[in-house]
């Protein structure tokens, strides 16, 4: 197997494929959950952090604007730097940002954490799809299964219970 740059790459074992698919599906779960679960935590954030009613929408907007605004850049970085590297960086950013947002004691820290979560998600989403194609693209049957699991992670993330999120 060769990558887009033409350099030979090692074909992962089926066990490594399963682990990779689980990690990619978990990433999709987290990206969607971080978008949808925030509504549950908003009343508590308003009272704990002192958000005004007018500024409360920025908790959601900080994530969505960063995520949507940087998706194309995430895809391009995935092309230039490699999907695996960008996916890993996205996970690291998302994890640290979730910790920051979850421990925030001030409005600006919460908004910064949520925007950083959006940045991590914008790196994860396009690189995850590239990784799926690289890992499972040789077999239409396996690719179909992988995409089905990846696709199922989105509604699962949207329906996640409130205790699953760092923001809750």
Q: What structural class should be given to the helix and strand makeup?
A: mainly alpha
Name the quaternary structure.
Answer: single chain
List the helices and strands in order. HHHHHH
Shape: elongated
**Mind describing the biggest β-sheet?**
none
Q: Give the distance, in angstroms, between the N- and C-terminal Cα atoms.
A: 43 Å
Radius of gyration: 17 Å
Helix content: over 70%
Molecular structure report:
The chain is mainly alpha-helical and 168 residues long. It has helices spanning 14-36, 38-49, 57-81, 83-103, 107-136, 140-158. It is elongated. The mean pLDDT is 82.
Topology (elements, then pairings):
Blueprint: H1 14-36, H2 38-49, H3 57-81, H4 83-103, H5 107-136, H6 140-158
Helix pairs in contact: 1-5, 1-6, 3-4, 3-5, 4-5, 5-6
Give a short summary of the structure:
With 168 residues, the protein is mostly helical. The chain contains six helices and no strands.
Q: Features of this protein?
A:
168 residues, mainly alpha, 6 helices, elongated
